């Protein structure tokens, strides 16, 4: 007779698997995201450097940075090493730009072939074009015609 499968009676004794060794840091970053939610309009994205175990909180204004510092260093302190950096564009603004341009590229280029996404490290929308794409010249010109400082063009082959 086959064993019937069901809940493991010993499941309460299991420990979560932490392959990267960063489970506690990840939980703390989730807590920080929740704390910083009122500052979403100014949020330039958070960056995690596992080598230095440093979290970089990016905001678009000095006032938002001051509020983030107050929250994370005084009101509800974190045990993570945190850097605070002012950036030019919010993550929300760059994501909206990415969605609008990449999802509707045929509208403004007349063709397709652009890939890319938001790069929080450079605080830009990176648009990728394959130099070997038959439409590469059209795509490159269309991106350049946007003349948008939030966009970085990366041509690869």
The number of distinct β-strands equals 6
User: What separation lies between the terminal Cα atoms?
Assistant: 60 Å
Per the principal axes of the C-alpha atoms, what is the gross shape?
extended
Q: Treating each run of at least 4 consecutive H or I residues as one helix, how many helices? A: 5
What is the average per-residue confidence, as pLDDT, rounded to a whole number?
Answer: 93
Give the number of domains. Answer: 2
Task: Describe the protein.
It is extended, with a radius of gyration of 22 Å. The chain has 2 domains: 17-86; 91-156, GMP Synthetase, Chain A, domain 3 (2-Layer Sandwich), CATH 3.30.300. The strands form 2 sheets. It has a 3-stranded mixed sheet. A 3-stranded mixed sheet has the order 4-5-6, with helices on one face. It is built from 5 helices and 6 strands, in the order H-E-E-H-E-H-H-E-E-H-E. The model has no long low-confidence stretch (mean pLDDT 93). It is of the alpha/beta class.
Chart the SSEs and their pairings.
Layout lengths: L22 H13 L7 E7 L4 E6 L2 H14 L5 E6 L4 H13 L1 H5 L5 E5 L4 E7 L5 H11 L4 E6 L1
Parallel strand pairs: 2-3, 5-6
Antiparallel strand pairs: 1-2, 4-5
Features:
157 residues, alpha/beta, three-stranded mixed beta sheet, 5 helices, extended
Summarize this, please?
This protein is of the alpha/beta class and 157 residues long. 36% of the residues lie in helices and 24% in strands.
């Amino acid at each position: 007779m086959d064993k019937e499968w069901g809940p493991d009676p010993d499941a309460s004794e299991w420990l979560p698997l932490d392959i990267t060794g960063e489970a506690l840091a990840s939980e703390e970053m989730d807590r920080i995201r929740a704390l910083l939610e009122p500052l979403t309009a100014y949020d330039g994205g958070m960056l995690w450097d596992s080598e230095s175990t440093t979290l970089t909180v990016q905001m678009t204004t000095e006032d938002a940075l001051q509020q983030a510092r107050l929250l994370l260093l005084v009101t509800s302190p974190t045990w993570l090493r945190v850097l605070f950096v002012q950036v030019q564009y919010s993550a929300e603004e760059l994501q909206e730009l990415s969605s609008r341009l990449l999802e509707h590229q045929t509208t403004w280029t007349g063709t397709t072939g652009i890939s890319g996404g938001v790069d929080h490290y450079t605080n830009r929308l990176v648009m990728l074009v394959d130099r070997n794409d038959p439409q590469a010249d059209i795509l490159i010109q269309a991106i350049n015609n946007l003349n948008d400082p939030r966009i970085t063009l990366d041509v690869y082959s």
